[in-house]
């Protein structure tokens, strides 16, 4: 739990100061290593608030980042469901 | 067997959980779409302004320290290069200023006044930090910024428009952001084309092969005052194709831009005079 909180703080700071690809990689690492890492969607949400222009549509999608993040979260959790761990 | 039964139960439980996640996701989307964007956007920007302020101080300190440890030889080389650039730009600016004055006089003769008010704003974050090719600037509604204002850089290049406004900051979506389109004219006969954003200050458009275009041609945004979207960087004319594919680039490094001008159009300027 402690590592998870620390990781969240790191990713949150990266969102403000680092290139986006680095923030994405750090958040994705959290998604892979921590169970039910819903913070991944929350970080996408913060990125939307910070960087997206209000009327901007990415090829017709209103909130593309949240949609992508939620899709990745569901895929990861579905895969995790079928992977047995010791 | 017992283990397998437990595993199935676990999967069933997780599937139920997924359903809840989906439900929560759509509720959040609904709230964001209609209610929460302004409030949470303002909140995250107010946190962001503080962090970016601290970061700006640090980056200035680091660049100062880097200058201290740079060798004398490399500084002398850099100095010489900058002197040459200044000489070249000064020479070019004489003819440019004369041509601009002539152009404005000409428009005034026809009672058109290409006037606009410019507000200087500092860039807080470059497009590298944003997944959407946006800039965050340090001017907001407090400074008179409203949505839809054009944003320019030096050299009359219009780089984007203000798309979100908060109290002391605003988000500028670049014309080059993926999925964006812009109506421009190219060539000596001002052929209208639609410019498609590719991200990072890059664009592309397609035209029939017969139209004469060349590298370094300016791409104009039709307006009374001079305004450009970029310059033609490369033209590809594949064999057997009746089209030419043109790559356009903003002639500035959009990732290192520090200052921009927000354009407030003087809507009644022409009526007043």
Task: Explain how this protein is built.
The complex is a heterodimer of chains A (86) and B (273). Chain A is mainly alpha-helical and 86 residues long. Chain A contains four helices and no strands. Chain A is flat. In chain A, helix 1 runs antiparallel to helix 2. Chain B is α+β, with helices and mostly antiparallel strands. In chain B, 40% of the residues lie in helices and 29% in strands. Chain B has three helices and twelve strands; from the N terminus they run ααββββββββββββα. In chain B, 24% of the residues are buried. Classes of the chains: A mainly alpha (86), B alpha+beta (273).
Summary tags:
heterodimer, A: 86 residues, mainly alpha, B: 273 residues, alpha+beta
The percent range for helix content of chain A is over 70%
Main sheet properties of chain A = none
Number of strands of chain B: 12
Low-confidence stretches of chain A: none
Q: In one word, what is the shape of chain A? A: flat
Tally of helical segments of chain A = 4
Distance between the termini of chain B: 90 Å
Number of strands of chain A: 0
| Major sheet summary line of chain B | 6 strands, antiparallel, barrel
Oligomer: heterodimer
Mean pLDDT of chain A: 84
The radius of gyration computed from the alpha-carbon positions of chain A, rounded to a whole number of angstroms, is 14 Å
Low-confidence stretches of chain B: none
Mean pLDDT of chain B comes to: 82
- Helix and strand sequence of chain A: HHHH
Estimate what percentage of residues of chain A fall within beta strands: under 5%
In DSSP terms (H or I, runs of 4 or more residues), the helix count of chain B works out at: 3
Beginning-to-end CA distance, first to last residue of chain A = 19 Å
């Amino acid at each position: 739990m402690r590592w998870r909180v620390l990781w969240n703080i790191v990713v949150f700071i990266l969102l403000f100061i680092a290139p986006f690809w680095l923030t994405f990689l750090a958040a994705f690492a959290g998604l892979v290593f921590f169970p039910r890492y819903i913070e991944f969607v929350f970080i996408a949400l913060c990125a939307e608030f910070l960087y997206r222009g209000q009327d901007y549509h990415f090829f017709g999608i209103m909130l593309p980042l949240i949609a992508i993040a939620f899709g990745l979260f569901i895929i990861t959790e579905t895969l995790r469901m079928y992977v047995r761990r010791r | 067997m017992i283990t397998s039964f437990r595993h199935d139960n676990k999967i069933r439980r997780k599937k139920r959980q997924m359903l809840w996640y989906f439900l929560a996701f759509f509720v959040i989307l609904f709230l964001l779409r209609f209610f929460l964007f302004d409030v949470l956007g303002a909140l995250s920007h107010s946190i962001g302004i503080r962090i970016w302020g601290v970061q700006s101080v640090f980056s200035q300190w680091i660049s100062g320290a880097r200058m201290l440890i740079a060798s004398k030889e490399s500084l002398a080389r850099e100095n010489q290069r900058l002197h040459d650039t200044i000489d070249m730009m000064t020479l070019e600016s004489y003819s440019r200023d004369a041509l601009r004055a002539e152009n404005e006089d000409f428009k005034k003769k026809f009672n058109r006044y290409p006037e606009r008010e410019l507000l200087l704003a500092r860039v807080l974050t470059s497009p590298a930090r944003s997944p959407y090719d946006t800039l965050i600037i340090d001017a907001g509604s407090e400074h008179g910024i409203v949505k839809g204002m054009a944003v320019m850089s030096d050299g009359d290049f219009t780089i984007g428009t203000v798309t979100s406004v908060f109290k002391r900051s605003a988000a500028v979506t670049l014309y080059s952001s993926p999925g964006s389109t812009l109506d421009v004219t190219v060539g000596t006969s001002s052929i209208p084309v639609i410019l498609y954003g590719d991200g990072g200050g890059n664009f592309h458009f397609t035209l029939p092969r017969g139209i004469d275009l060349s590298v370094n041609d300016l791409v104009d945004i039709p307006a009374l005052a001079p305004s450009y979207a970029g310059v033609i960087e490369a033209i590809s004319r594949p064999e057997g194709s009746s089209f030419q594919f043109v790559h356009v680039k903003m002639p500035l490094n959009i990732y290192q831009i520090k200052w921009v001008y927000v354009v407030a159009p003087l809507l009644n300027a022409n009526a007043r005079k």
